[in-house]
Amino acid sequence: MRTSLAPRPTDVDAERRAWPAVVAVMMGIFTIVTTEILPIGLLTAIGSGFALSDGTAGLMMTMPGLLAAVAAPLVTAATARVDRRVVLCALMLVLTAANLIAAIAADYWTLLASRVLVGIVIGGFWSVGAGLAGRLVPAASAGRATAVIFSAVPLGSVLGVPVGTLIGDVAGWRTAFTALAVLSAAVLAALVLTLPPLPAQRPTRLAVLGRALRRRGTLLALALTFLIVLAHFGAYTYITPFLERVTGADAGAVTAVLVVYGAAGIAGSLVCGATVNQYPRATFAAAAAMIAAGTLLLPHLGHTLPGAVALLVVWGIAYGGIPVCSQVWFAKAAPLTPEAATVLFTASFQATISIGALVGGAVLDRSTVSTVMTLGGAAALAVVVLLGVTKALGPKTSR
Protein backbone atom coordinates (compact mmCIF):
# COMPACT_ATOMS: atom_id res chain seq x y z
CA MET A 1 0.00 0.00 0.00
CA ARG A 2 1.40 3.41 -0.95
CA THR A 3 1.60 5.93 1.88
CA SER A 4 1.60 9.71 1.74
CA LEU A 5 5.33 9.65 2.55
CA ALA A 6 6.23 7.77 -0.62
CA PRO A 7 7.39 9.86 -3.60
CA ARG A 8 4.80 10.36 -6.27
CA PRO A 9 5.61 8.46 -9.47
CA THR A 10 5.27 11.65 -11.50
CA ASP A 11 7.94 13.39 -9.39
CA VAL A 12 10.30 10.43 -9.65
CA ASP A 13 9.74 10.14 -13.39
CA ALA A 14 10.28 13.87 -13.89
CA GLU A 15 13.59 13.79 -12.03
CA ARG A 16 14.70 10.68 -13.92
CA ARG A 17 14.02 12.43 -17.22
CA ALA A 18 15.84 15.57 -16.05
CA TRP A 19 19.22 13.99 -15.31
CA PRO A 20 20.14 13.31 -18.94
CA ALA A 21 19.75 17.06 -19.53
CA VAL A 22 22.06 17.80 -16.59
CA VAL A 23 24.65 15.40 -18.02
CA ALA A 24 24.28 16.98 -21.47
CA VAL A 25 25.01 20.45 -20.04
CA MET A 26 27.96 18.99 -18.12
CA MET A 27 29.29 17.43 -21.32
CA GLY A 28 28.88 20.77 -23.06
CA ILE A 29 31.08 22.48 -20.48
CA PHE A 30 33.51 19.55 -20.55
CA THR A 31 33.88 19.93 -24.33
CA ILE A 32 34.32 23.68 -24.01
CA VAL A 33 36.94 23.37 -21.25
CA THR A 34 38.83 20.74 -23.23
CA THR A 35 38.73 22.85 -26.39
CA GLU A 36 39.95 25.90 -24.50
CA ILE A 37 42.95 24.35 -22.76
CA LEU A 38 43.94 21.57 -25.19
CA PRO A 39 46.60 23.83 -26.81
CA ILE A 40 48.54 23.60 -23.52
CA GLY A 41 49.28 19.95 -24.32
CA LEU A 42 49.81 20.57 -28.05
CA LEU A 43 51.68 23.86 -27.78
CA THR A 44 55.07 22.72 -29.06
CA ALA A 45 53.55 20.57 -31.81
CA ILE A 46 51.41 23.42 -33.16
CA GLY A 47 54.28 25.88 -32.83
CA SER A 48 56.56 23.56 -34.80
CA GLY A 49 53.92 23.06 -37.46
CA PHE A 50 53.70 26.78 -38.14
CA ALA A 51 57.35 27.61 -37.28
CA LEU A 52 56.36 29.72 -34.27
CA SER A 53 57.93 30.35 -30.88
CA ASP A 54 56.16 28.91 -27.85
CA GLY A 55 55.24 32.42 -26.72
CA THR A 56 53.55 33.22 -30.03
CA ALA A 57 51.78 29.87 -30.06
CA GLY A 58 50.46 30.77 -26.60
CA LEU A 59 48.15 33.29 -28.29
CA MET A 60 45.84 30.29 -28.77
CA MET A 61 45.16 30.58 -25.04
CA THR A 62 44.98 34.37 -25.13
CA MET A 63 42.29 34.72 -27.80
CA PRO A 64 39.51 32.58 -26.25
CA GLY A 65 39.89 34.13 -22.81
CA LEU A 66 39.79 37.68 -24.16
CA LEU A 67 36.72 37.04 -26.29
CA ALA A 68 34.98 35.08 -23.52
CA ALA A 69 35.37 38.03 -21.15
CA VAL A 70 33.59 40.27 -23.65
CA ALA A 71 31.06 37.63 -24.72
CA ALA A 72 29.91 36.73 -21.20
CA PRO A 73 27.98 39.97 -20.55
CA LEU A 74 27.15 40.72 -24.18
CA VAL A 75 25.74 37.30 -25.08
CA THR A 76 23.81 37.12 -21.82
CA ALA A 77 22.29 40.56 -22.37
CA ALA A 78 21.64 40.06 -26.09
CA THR A 79 19.84 36.76 -25.49
CA ALA A 80 18.09 37.92 -22.32
CA ARG A 81 14.65 36.90 -23.61
CA VAL A 82 15.67 33.90 -25.74
CA ASP A 83 14.91 30.36 -24.63
CA ARG A 84 18.07 29.07 -22.89
CA ARG A 85 17.76 25.76 -24.72
CA VAL A 86 18.05 27.55 -28.06
CA VAL A 87 21.02 29.60 -26.84
CA LEU A 88 22.98 26.57 -25.62
CA CYS A 89 22.33 24.58 -28.79
CA ALA A 90 23.35 27.49 -31.02
CA LEU A 91 26.58 27.98 -29.09
CA MET A 92 27.45 24.28 -29.31
CA LEU A 93 26.92 24.46 -33.08
CA VAL A 94 29.42 27.35 -33.20
CA LEU A 95 31.91 25.28 -31.17
CA THR A 96 31.61 22.41 -33.64
CA ALA A 97 32.40 24.79 -36.49
CA ALA A 98 35.33 26.32 -34.58
CA ASN A 99 36.96 22.93 -34.02
CA LEU A 100 36.51 22.00 -37.68
CA ILE A 101 38.14 25.27 -38.75
CA ALA A 102 41.07 24.59 -36.41
CA ALA A 103 41.50 21.09 -37.83
CA ILE A 104 41.79 22.34 -41.43
CA ALA A 105 43.53 25.69 -40.79
CA ALA A 106 46.06 26.36 -43.53
CA ASP A 107 47.87 29.04 -41.51
CA TYR A 108 48.19 30.22 -37.94
CA TRP A 109 45.88 33.22 -38.39
CA THR A 110 43.04 30.94 -39.44
CA LEU A 111 43.68 28.86 -36.36
CA LEU A 112 43.50 32.02 -34.23
CA ALA A 113 40.20 32.94 -35.93
CA SER A 114 38.77 29.62 -34.80
CA ARG A 115 39.86 30.44 -31.27
CA VAL A 116 37.87 33.69 -31.46
CA LEU A 117 34.75 31.59 -32.01
CA VAL A 118 35.75 29.38 -29.08
CA GLY A 119 35.95 32.48 -26.87
CA ILE A 120 32.42 33.56 -27.79
CA VAL A 121 31.12 30.09 -26.95
CA ILE A 122 32.92 30.00 -23.61
CA GLY A 123 31.50 33.32 -22.48
CA GLY A 124 27.96 32.58 -23.58
CA PHE A 125 27.64 28.90 -22.63
CA TRP A 126 29.19 29.31 -19.19
CA SER A 127 27.10 32.35 -18.29
CA VAL A 128 23.86 30.66 -19.34
CA GLY A 129 24.51 27.00 -18.61
CA ALA A 130 26.30 27.13 -15.25
CA GLY A 131 23.19 28.25 -13.40
CA LEU A 132 20.61 25.97 -15.03
CA ALA A 133 20.75 23.07 -12.55
CA GLY A 134 17.95 24.47 -10.42
CA ARG A 135 15.65 24.63 -13.44
CA LEU A 136 16.38 21.12 -14.66
CA VAL A 137 15.85 19.08 -11.49
CA PRO A 138 13.68 19.42 -8.36
CA ALA A 139 14.96 21.84 -5.72
CA ALA A 140 16.10 19.01 -3.44
CA SER A 141 18.48 17.77 -6.15
CA ALA A 142 19.73 21.16 -7.36
CA GLY A 143 22.94 21.04 -5.30
CA ARG A 144 23.86 17.61 -6.63
CA ALA A 145 23.06 18.68 -10.20
CA THR A 146 25.23 21.80 -9.84
CA ALA A 147 28.12 19.64 -8.60
CA VAL A 148 27.71 17.36 -11.63
CA ILE A 149 27.80 20.33 -14.02
CA PHE A 150 30.89 21.85 -12.41
CA SER A 151 32.70 18.52 -12.37
CA ALA A 152 33.26 19.20 -16.08
CA VAL A 153 36.05 21.66 -15.22
CA PRO A 154 38.50 19.23 -13.56
CA LEU A 155 37.36 16.44 -15.89
CA GLY A 156 38.53 18.57 -18.80
CA SER A 157 42.00 18.57 -17.26
CA VAL A 158 42.12 14.95 -16.12
CA LEU A 159 40.47 13.38 -19.16
CA GLY A 160 39.95 15.80 -22.03
CA VAL A 161 43.38 17.40 -22.32
CA PRO A 162 45.47 14.23 -21.76
CA VAL A 163 43.35 12.25 -24.25
CA GLY A 164 43.51 15.10 -26.74
CA THR A 165 47.25 15.38 -26.23
CA LEU A 166 47.64 11.64 -26.74
CA ILE A 167 45.64 11.81 -29.98
CA GLY A 168 47.84 14.71 -31.09
CA ASP A 169 51.02 12.79 -30.29
CA VAL A 170 49.86 9.69 -32.17
CA ALA A 171 47.96 11.14 -35.13
CA GLY A 172 48.83 14.85 -35.22
CA TRP A 173 47.31 17.91 -33.59
CA ARG A 174 44.80 18.39 -36.43
CA THR A 175 43.30 14.99 -35.64
CA ALA A 176 42.86 16.10 -32.02
CA PHE A 177 40.75 19.07 -33.13
CA THR A 178 38.80 16.83 -35.51
CA ALA A 179 37.96 14.57 -32.59
CA LEU A 180 36.77 17.60 -30.64
CA ALA A 181 34.52 18.61 -33.54
CA VAL A 182 32.93 15.16 -33.50
CA LEU A 183 32.46 15.37 -29.73
CA SER A 184 30.94 18.85 -30.04
CA ALA A 185 28.44 17.58 -32.61
CA ALA A 186 27.50 14.67 -30.34
CA VAL A 187 26.94 17.04 -27.41
CA LEU A 188 24.80 19.25 -29.64
CA ALA A 189 22.60 16.26 -30.45
CA ALA A 190 22.35 15.41 -26.74
CA LEU A 191 21.30 18.97 -25.89
CA VAL A 192 18.63 18.95 -28.59
CA LEU A 193 17.24 15.62 -27.40
CA THR A 194 17.33 16.13 -23.63
CA LEU A 195 16.87 19.80 -22.78
CA PRO A 196 13.29 20.93 -22.16
CA PRO A 197 12.11 24.40 -23.20
CA LEU A 198 13.78 26.91 -20.86
CA PRO A 199 12.19 30.35 -21.29
CA ALA A 200 14.36 33.20 -20.04
CA GLN A 201 13.73 34.27 -16.44
CA ARG A 202 14.81 37.52 -14.76
CA PRO A 203 16.77 38.84 -17.75
CA THR A 204 20.23 40.10 -16.83
CA ARG A 205 20.74 43.55 -18.32
CA LEU A 206 24.03 45.43 -18.51
CA ALA A 207 22.71 47.89 -15.90
CA VAL A 208 22.37 45.04 -13.40
CA LEU A 209 25.99 44.08 -14.03
CA GLY A 210 27.04 47.70 -13.56
CA ARG A 211 25.35 47.91 -10.18
CA ALA A 212 26.97 44.66 -9.06
CA LEU A 213 30.39 45.93 -10.12
CA ARG A 214 30.07 48.96 -7.83
CA ARG A 215 29.95 46.80 -4.71
CA ARG A 216 33.14 46.60 -2.65
CA GLY A 217 32.80 42.83 -2.25
CA THR A 218 32.59 42.40 -6.01
CA LEU A 219 35.71 44.50 -6.54
CA LEU A 220 37.60 42.32 -4.07
CA ALA A 221 36.37 39.18 -5.83
CA LEU A 222 37.61 40.65 -9.11
CA ALA A 223 41.04 41.41 -7.65
CA LEU A 224 41.42 37.94 -6.12
CA THR A 225 40.31 36.23 -9.32
CA PHE A 226 42.63 38.33 -11.46
CA LEU A 227 45.70 37.57 -9.38
CA ILE A 228 45.16 33.84 -8.88
CA VAL A 229 44.16 33.10 -12.48
CA LEU A 230 47.08 35.24 -13.69
CA ALA A 231 49.37 33.17 -11.48
CA HIS A 232 47.97 29.86 -12.68
CA PHE A 233 47.57 30.37 -16.42
CA GLY A 234 50.61 32.59 -16.75
CA ALA A 235 52.61 29.55 -15.64
CA TYR A 236 50.51 26.49 -16.50
CA THR A 237 50.07 27.48 -20.16
CA TYR A 238 53.79 26.76 -20.53
CA ILE A 239 54.05 23.64 -18.38
CA THR A 240 54.70 21.45 -21.43
CA PRO A 241 57.83 23.41 -22.47
CA PHE A 242 58.99 23.25 -18.82
CA LEU A 243 58.55 19.49 -18.59
CA GLU A 244 60.30 18.97 -21.93
CA ARG A 245 63.20 21.38 -21.47
CA VAL A 246 63.86 21.41 -17.72
CA THR A 247 62.56 18.04 -16.52
CA GLY A 248 63.57 16.23 -19.72
CA ALA A 249 60.23 14.44 -20.08
CA ASP A 250 59.27 12.87 -23.41
CA ALA A 251 55.80 13.17 -24.98
CA GLY A 252 54.44 10.11 -23.20
CA ALA A 253 55.66 11.31 -19.83
CA VAL A 254 54.16 14.76 -20.38
CA THR A 255 50.77 13.18 -21.08
CA ALA A 256 51.04 11.04 -17.94
CA VAL A 257 51.96 14.04 -15.82
CA LEU A 258 48.97 15.99 -17.14
CA VAL A 259 46.71 13.07 -16.17
CA VAL A 260 48.13 13.06 -12.64
CA TYR A 261 47.72 16.83 -12.44
CA GLY A 262 44.10 16.58 -13.55
CA ALA A 263 43.32 13.82 -11.04
CA ALA A 264 44.75 16.01 -8.29
CA GLY A 265 42.52 18.81 -9.54
CA ILE A 266 39.39 16.68 -9.10
CA ALA A 267 40.43 15.90 -5.52
CA GLY A 268 41.06 19.59 -4.84
CA SER A 269 37.67 20.53 -6.29
CA LEU A 270 35.91 18.11 -3.94
CA VAL A 271 37.83 19.27 -0.87
CA CYS A 272 37.38 22.98 -1.55
CA GLY A 273 33.74 22.46 -2.48
CA ALA A 274 33.15 20.98 0.96
CA THR A 275 34.83 23.84 2.87
CA VAL A 276 34.54 27.03 0.86
CA ASN A 277 30.99 28.01 1.86
CA GLN A 278 31.84 27.92 5.55
CA TYR A 279 35.46 29.05 5.30
CA PRO A 280 35.80 31.04 2.05
CA ARG A 281 38.80 33.11 3.14
CA ALA A 282 40.81 30.23 4.60
CA THR A 283 40.03 27.94 1.65
CA PHE A 284 41.04 30.55 -0.92
CA ALA A 285 44.22 31.43 1.00
CA ALA A 286 45.26 27.79 1.34
CA ALA A 287 44.75 27.14 -2.38
CA ALA A 288 46.72 30.27 -3.33
CA ALA A 289 49.57 29.34 -0.98
CA MET A 290 49.78 25.84 -2.48
CA ILE A 291 49.92 27.24 -6.03
CA ALA A 292 52.67 29.61 -4.91
CA ALA A 293 54.63 26.73 -3.39
CA GLY A 294 54.27 24.55 -6.48
CA THR A 295 55.30 27.18 -9.01
CA LEU A 296 58.10 28.74 -6.96
CA LEU A 297 59.71 25.38 -6.22
CA LEU A 298 59.43 23.90 -9.73
CA PRO A 299 62.56 25.64 -11.09
CA HIS A 300 64.55 24.21 -8.15
CA LEU A 301 63.03 20.75 -7.62
CA GLY A 302 61.49 20.08 -11.04
CA HIS A 303 64.69 18.89 -12.74
CA THR A 304 63.68 15.29 -12.01
CA LEU A 305 60.39 13.69 -12.98
CA PRO A 306 59.46 12.65 -9.40
CA GLY A 307 60.10 16.19 -8.16
CA ALA A 308 58.05 17.75 -10.96
CA VAL A 309 55.18 15.30 -10.42
CA ALA A 310 55.07 15.93 -6.67
CA LEU A 311 54.91 19.69 -7.13
CA LEU A 312 52.30 19.42 -9.87
CA VAL A 313 50.14 17.31 -7.56
CA VAL A 314 50.26 20.13 -5.00
CA TRP A 315 49.54 22.66 -7.74
CA GLY A 316 46.70 20.55 -9.17
CA ILE A 317 44.97 20.06 -5.81
CA ALA A 318 45.12 23.80 -5.22
CA TYR A 319 43.90 24.91 -8.63
CA GLY A 320 41.08 22.37 -8.59
CA GLY A 321 39.44 24.48 -5.90
CA ILE A 322 40.05 27.91 -7.44
CA PRO A 323 36.96 28.10 -9.72
CA VAL A 324 34.59 27.24 -6.89
CA CYS A 325 36.38 29.63 -4.52
CA SER A 326 36.12 32.47 -7.01
CA GLN A 327 32.47 31.80 -7.83
CA VAL A 328 31.51 31.64 -4.14
CA TRP A 329 33.09 35.05 -3.55
CA PHE A 330 31.17 36.54 -6.47
CA ALA A 331 27.92 34.89 -5.34
CA LYS A 332 28.29 36.22 -1.79
CA ALA A 333 29.09 39.68 -3.12
CA ALA A 334 25.89 39.75 -5.27
CA PRO A 335 23.42 37.41 -3.54
CA LEU A 336 20.28 38.96 -5.09
CA THR A 337 21.48 38.67 -8.70
CA PRO A 338 22.91 35.15 -9.12
CA GLU A 339 23.06 35.24 -12.94
CA ALA A 340 24.90 38.56 -12.81
CA ALA A 341 27.36 37.01 -10.34
CA THR A 342 27.93 34.11 -12.74
CA VAL A 343 28.48 36.50 -15.66
CA LEU A 344 31.03 38.54 -13.69
CA PHE A 345 32.80 35.38 -12.55
CA THR A 346 32.98 34.08 -16.14
CA ALA A 347 34.12 37.39 -17.61
CA SER A 348 36.84 38.04 -15.04
CA PHE A 349 38.09 34.46 -15.06
CA GLN A 350 38.32 34.29 -18.83
CA ALA A 351 39.86 37.73 -19.25
CA THR A 352 42.61 36.78 -16.86
CA ILE A 353 43.27 33.47 -18.64
CA SER A 354 43.94 35.59 -21.71
CA ILE A 355 46.17 38.05 -19.88
CA GLY A 356 48.03 35.30 -18.05
CA ALA A 357 48.83 33.40 -21.23
CA LEU A 358 49.90 36.62 -22.96
CA VAL A 359 52.15 37.77 -20.11
CA GLY A 360 53.63 34.30 -19.69
CA GLY A 361 54.36 34.09 -23.41
CA ALA A 362 56.02 37.51 -23.45
CA VAL A 363 58.24 36.53 -20.52
CA LEU A 364 59.07 33.17 -22.09
CA ASP A 365 60.16 34.74 -25.38
CA ARG A 366 62.51 37.07 -23.50
CA SER A 367 63.67 34.85 -20.66
CA THR A 368 63.30 31.21 -19.55
CA VAL A 369 60.40 28.96 -18.67
CA SER A 370 61.71 28.81 -15.09
CA THR A 371 61.30 32.58 -14.84
CA VAL A 372 57.67 32.17 -15.93
CA MET A 373 57.08 29.74 -13.05
CA THR A 374 58.70 32.07 -10.53
CA LEU A 375 56.59 35.06 -11.57
CA GLY A 376 53.46 32.92 -11.37
CA GLY A 377 54.36 32.01 -7.81
CA ALA A 378 54.82 35.68 -6.92
CA ALA A 379 51.31 36.49 -8.19
CA ALA A 380 49.85 33.63 -6.12
CA LEU A 381 51.60 34.95 -3.01
CA ALA A 382 50.00 38.33 -3.66
CA VAL A 383 46.58 36.66 -3.28
CA VAL A 384 47.51 35.38 0.18
CA VAL A 385 48.65 38.88 1.17
CA LEU A 386 45.48 40.51 -0.23
CA LEU A 387 43.26 38.07 1.67
CA GLY A 388 45.13 38.91 4.84
CA VAL A 389 44.80 42.70 4.59
CA THR A 390 41.21 43.00 3.32
CA LYS A 391 39.19 41.05 5.87
CA ALA A 392 36.49 43.72 6.13
CA LEU A 393 35.73 43.57 2.41
CA GLY A 394 35.22 39.81 2.15
CA PRO A 395 32.05 37.75 2.49
CA LYS A 396 30.41 38.20 5.89
CA THR A 397 30.84 34.52 6.63
CA SER A 398 34.53 34.44 5.67
CA ARG A 399 37.13 33.22 8.15
Largest sheet: none
Portion of residues in beta strands equals: under 5%
Helix percent reads over 70%
User: Rg to the nearest angstrom?
Assistant: 21 Å
The number of helical runs is 17
Uncertain segments are 1-10
Count of distinct strands = 0
Distance between the termini: 50 Å
User: SSE order, as H and E?
Assistant: HHHHHHHHHHHHHHHHH
The structural class is: mainly alpha
Return the average pLDDT rounded to an integer. Answer: 82
The coarse overall form would be: globular
Question: If you had to describe this structure to a student in words, what would you say it looks like?
Answer:
The protein is mainly alpha-helical and 399 residues long. It has helices at residues 9-49, 54-57, 59-78, 84-104, 108-129, 133-136, 142-150, 152-171, 173-194, 206-213, 216-236, 239-247, 251-275, 280-301, 305-333, 338-366, 369-389. Helix 3 (59-78) crosses helix 5, helix 4 (84-104) runs antiparallel to helix 5 (108-129) and helix 5 runs antiparallel to helix 16 (338-366). It starts with 8 loop residues before the first helix and ends in a 10-residue tail after the last helix. The model is unreliable at 1-10 (pLDDT under 50).
